[in-house]
Amino acid sequence: MAIADRRLQRREIITKAVCGKGRKFSTVTHTVKPPHHPSSILGAWIINHQYEAVRSGDGIEVIGSYDINIWYSYSKNSQTDVAKETISYVDLVPLSYVDPRHRSSTEEVSADATQEPNCVEATIGGGGSTVVIRVEKEFAVEMVAETKVRVLVDPNGDDDEKDHDFGLGGDDADYEDLDSDLLEDDL
Q1: Which residue segment(s) compose the domain that 61 sits in?
Q2: In which region does residue 75 sit, left (phi positive, over 0), alpha (psi from -120 to 50) or beta (all else)?
Q3: Whole-model pTM?
Q4: Residue 85: CA count within 13 A, CB half-sphere
C-alpha cells in the first residue's frame, strides 16, 4: 500500500539548523604615514588577520584586526624600510535569509573569510608623505539556532529495515545508467 493511501500523522521535531545566512564583500582604503617620505612602494602585505562574529540587530558583526606591512624605498631610492600599522574593523554583514521560526535564545553565529583581507593597490599620496592602501575582503556568515521541522509519520509503518519507495515508483535500478563523470562531488 502506498504511503499516500495511509492515514498520516504530523510530528514537530526541534533541531538545530542553519537559520540565517549572509555574505558581504567590502573594499576599504587606509592611509599609512611611514617615518620617511617614500620614493617608491616595493610591496604591501596584510598579515595577522584575526576576527570573531557576534549577533547584532538584523545581521552579524565581524570584529577583527590585521597588520599592514609596507616595504618602501626612500632617500631617492637609496634606502628601504618597512612601515607597519595595525587596523581594527567592524563589518556588519546583513542576513539575506532568516528563518522567522527559530528560537533566538539558542543562536550561535560564525563567520568565514571567503576572501582574506588583501592589498590590491598601494600608491604614494599626501604630497609624497603617505601611502594609500586599498584592501578587499569578503565574509560569509551563518546563524545556527533551534527551529521546528514538521515531518509526516506513517502510524502503520513496519519496523523492518527494508527500503520503501513511498509511492515514488523508483528503485536502485534507475541509477544504473547514470554517468558518474557528470555527477558533481561536493566533498
Answers
A1: 12-158
A2: left
A3: 0.73
A4: 16
Task: For residues 162 and 57, give the distance between their C-alpha atoms in angstroms, rounded to a whole number.
Answer: 48
What are the cell numbers at 59?
A: 545581521
How many angstroms separate the Cα of 127 from the Cα of each of 79, 130, 131, 139? Answer: 20, 8, 10, 34
Split into its structural domains, the chain has a count of: 1
Cα–Cα distance for residue pair 180/187, rounded to 1 Å: 15
Residue 7 lies in a domain: no
Q: Return d(Cα 21, Cα 142) in angstroms, integer.
A: 5
2 domain-assigned: no
pLDDT tens digits, residue range 85-109?
999 999 999 998 888 888 888 899 9
Q: How far apart, in whole angstroms, are the C-alpha atoms of residue 100 and residue 145?
A: 11
